[in-house]
Amino acid sequence: xxxxxxxxxxxxxxxxxxxxxxxxxxxxxxxxxxxxxxxxxxxxxxxxxxxxxxxxxxxxxxxxxxxxxxxxxxxxxxxxxxxxxxxxxxxxxxxxxxxxxxxxxxxxxxxxxxxxxxxxxxxxxxxxxxxxxxxxxxxxxxxxxxxxxxxxxxxxxxxxxxxxxxxxxxxxxxxxxxxxxxxxxxxxxxxxxxxxxxxxxxxxxxxxxxxxxxxxxxxxxxxxxxxxxxxxxxxxxxxxxxxxxxxxxxxxxxxxxxxxxxxxxxxxxxxxxxxxxxxxxxxxxxxxxxxxxxxxxxxx
Length: 300
Fold this sequence. Notes:
The chain has 300 residues and is mainly alpha-helical. The protein has a single domain (2-291), classed as Glycosyltransferase (Alpha/alpha barrel), CATH 1.50.10.150. It is built from 13 helices and no strands. It has helices at 2-15, 21-48, 50-57, 67-79, 85-112, 125-129, 134-138, 144-171, 188-201, 206-224, 226-229, 242-259, 262-291. The longest helix is centred in the C-terminal third of the chain and has 30 residues, at 262-291.
């Protein structure tokens, strides 16, 4: 998701004539190849070790990450939207169908099973609030009412899940260290929501500004939570830092496009530098841990 987000950022910066096309082209095919590799690898696991995958699908935390697969399809659809529209359409349909299945199954799983409040973390936003991504490319392929349905569901559950999370964060034990990076996920719903709303309504209005400013608020809040991040041990969950930073960068570019307010242009540059540094650092740490054999190991 983080690499797909960076690809979309490069594409946006290219179309704004802020970066050459080579960055967009190179990362687009690298990210697609990497996604196909992971898809093949996990697909093989699902066949050879079906029971293990089944356990993950019934795990109270891991179930939320299955929707990252469908969201990755949707993100690649957005990345290919101007480069290869037909492939974008196919990826979008696959992503939407998969995401709808994952979303409804996960929500029904939440309702059927008993959860303790400490099990709640920002990863819960992925399966339900991820619906907000659908309209970004969806307005090109189906009537806006279809996109507005997914936007409405995502926005509605964003408010509900954020309320539950805030209650959990304030009145209960702190998140386990491995889930601290998922706090960055708080940035993504309003940032992507802003982009999706602009795509649907084509309107720079009070609601659009509300969504954008809430996203900036979460960026500021996370800066004040710096002490929670500075001594973190590396976990694969560090990738949760990446996509939200791409989302707020894209939101800033879109805000500049529709409002012509130069401040948003400068904010997009600042966010882009920070997002690029973040993804390079996390990618380097990941490769380091892969070489040390500390990735994809059994855990409790």
